[in-house]
Design goal:
1 helix, 67 residues, single chain, little secondary structure
Length: 67
């Protein structure tokens, strides 16, 4: 089996999205934030500029996508 570098087979589409810092998560709001933590919903935001309606109404967060 031939091995390929990660960057050759995976496209990072999250790099073009706006990010939200965990310190800016709210306890309630219009939009759920799903991250890599233990809880299903990590927090909320009211910032509509973070929502990408072209894919679906979610905020994408991840800090473990690159090596």
């Amino acid at each position: 089996m031939k091995k390929f570098p990660f960057g050759e087979v995976i496209t990072d589409v999250t790099s073009k999205f706006k990010k939200i810092k965990q310190s800016d998560y709210k306890k309630n709001g219009l939009f759920q934030i799903i991250d890599q933590g233990k809880e299903p919903v990590a927090g909320y935001t009211d910032n509509v500029n973070l929502v990408n309606a072209k894919l679906s109404p979610i905020i994408i967060f991840g800090d473990h996508t690159a090596h």
